[in-house]
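Form 7-S
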Amino acid sequence: MAGYTHTDPFDTGLLAVGTLHHIYYEQYGNPNGRPVIFLHGGPGGQTSKSNTTYFNPKIYRVILLDQRGTGKSTPKTELRENTTPDLVSDIETLRLHLSIQKWYLLFGGSWGSTLALLYAQSHPDKVHSLLLRGVFTTRDAEVSWSRGPHGAANIFPEAWKAFVGFLPVEERGDPVAGYYKRLTGESHKERIAAAKEWNRWDLRIGELKCDERGFLALEDEGWSLAHALMEAHYAVHHFWLEEGQILKRENLEKMKHLNGGFYYFKWLLGLFLMLGTESGLVTIVQGRYDMVCPPQTAYDLHCALPGSTLIWVPDAGHSGQEPGTRQEMLRACDRYADLA
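Output:
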């Protein structure tokens, strides 16, 4: 499956949100088609036309959104009024601005999966289906997996040594805080240096087979600083969410319509049991060897949403560009396109 080719966007815009920000969006495909929003990762990522490849342009109306402070949104790297609730609110603001009655599909990878889940729990009546890749729900254990000493660090010990080695010895126990201190410091030179090392670690662990060409992105100071700064900004503030918030029973119940109407909970002998079918409208695509977002999270979400479909990609890590993952996402989008 080669993916789909789109012509230039039929609409672009900057939408004012809050008192400081303007979020950039583009629309592709069929203006009267099924509306799908692509939620990029990070925090601190951005969209590009290549993100439209998953969507049949005859069927889908594809909306790409650059989140606050990233990509073509303005002002770049602005941290004020830049929180998780703000980003979830922006998705709803954009829906209203574009006169979309209901999102047919929320497509989110990594941090984008976080926003998709939060939006579905905040506005359940405005979501028809979800496609999630490399699931991230912000739990402390998930952050520790990629930014602590006992997860990916044990698989990439030499890269971890370089990552924490950028910091003074006394700050290596909390690298997120240490890097954030430098990323928000007054020295531009130190900010760029910190951003490069933060992103070098991300790139090193992001794919099952690391493509060294990806490290060329580190020379783009604008991208490098925005990506690292936003990731650290959100992580150091615990994403403005309660621990385990997304997977709490009461929040998952708000999404019961996405399980094809089958969503039952029972409490028995202190165990939380879930019953359902595989007929729902949540598809999870997860690389078996994901070093950024631990596969356990995807499994936990699947078990908590009994109508969901979990697709393991046996030869992939975290990146959505790995062949097996890309193929599964293309297939999922085509399956949703065929639904009545």
